[in-house]
Design brief:
126 residues, mainly beta, 4-stranded antiparallel beta sheet, 10 strands
Length: 126
């Protein structure tokens, strides 16, 4: 039993910043890989960033490199996505996803993640 919940979305002007949080609750604890995906209106869901169980692997989508940072204190702690220099193209629903099967890896496709949150809206005005 795994529950995933995102928070921290909102409305921000271009160039501004937001920090998203993802809380993961498990009936039986297991280390895990956590990823962020986003989906804008009329577009397919796309990979944003991921972090493995010990933070040793943190791949980013090319479009957010240098602007977004994913982090975790440890495998049992909430994961954060710091988003700086936001652009209107970043407007989307942001989803947190979890994989406990191969926590040493950081897949970048949505079908590799069994557990998902409900999403949090990020809107960036021009």
């Amino acid at each position: 039993q795994v529950q995933v919940e995102e928070s921290g979305g909102g409305l921000v002007q271009a160039g501004g910043s937001l920090r998203l949080s993802c809380e993961v609750e498990q009936h039986t604890f297991s280390v895990y890989t956590l990823a962020w995906f986003r989906q804008a209106p009329g577009k397919e869901r796309e990979f944003v960033a991921a972090i493995n169980w010990n933070g040793g692997s943190t791949p980013y989508a090319e479009s957010v490199k240098g602007r977004f940072t994913i982090s975790r204190i440890n495998a049992k702690t909430a994961t954060f996505l710091q988003m700086n220099n936001l652009k209107p193209d970043d407007t989307a629903i942001y989803y947190c996803a979890v994989d406990r099967r191969r926590p040493w890896e950081t897949p970048t496709t949505a079908d590799e993640y069994p557990y998902w949150g409900q999403g949090t809206q990020v809107t960036v005005s021009s």
